Amino acid sequence: MATNIDLEVINEISIKDPKKYKVLLLNDDYTIMEFVIDVLKSVFHKSPQEAEAVMLEIHKNDKGVCGIYTHEIAETKVMQVHKKARDSGFPLKAEMEEE
Predict the structure, then answer these.
(1) Which of 14, 69, 88, 97 is deepest in the core (most CB within 10 A)?
(2) Torsion of CA 82, 45, 72, 12, to 10 degrees
(3) What is the pLDDT along the chain (99 residues), one digit of tens a residue?
(4) Residue 14 falls within a domain, yes or no?
(5) Alpha-carbon distance 89 to 83, whole Å?
């Protein structure tokens, strides 16, 4: 004996985009501009022109946005900047803030 049962399934799944975080480099009086440009190119994959523009923003405004990422990627970028700066003897600092 086969019974036909109609089931109505309602799936309401709300998928939210993950929060995004800005990674900022902070200006200091010791880190040379060439090193900042190198960090922007190697860590943030900026073109030479983009790297120079961000470096000038950092120089003029005491900080500049290097990129916008998910939390884990932003956190990794901050750590990469600090390691590269430490290994090169510069006090360059990066921070992340919610977009």
Answers:
(1) 69
(2) 160
(3) 566 676 666 677 788 889 999 999 999 999 999 999 999 999 999 999 999 999 999 999 999 999 999 999 999 999 999 999 999 999 999 999 999
(4) no
(5) 10
Is 2 a member of any domain?
A: no
Using a 10 angstrom Cβ sphere, with 0-12 exposed, 13-18 middle and 19 or more buried, the burial of residue 13 is: exposed
Q: Is residue 78 part of a domain?
A: yes
pTM of the model: 0.83
Three-state SS sequence of the chain: CCCCCCCCCCCCCCCCCCCEEEEEEECCCCCCHHHHHHHHHHCCCCCHHHHHHHHHHHHHHCEEEEEEEEHHHHHHHHHHHHHHHHHHCCCCEEEEEEC
Name the residue range of residue 70's domain.
28-98
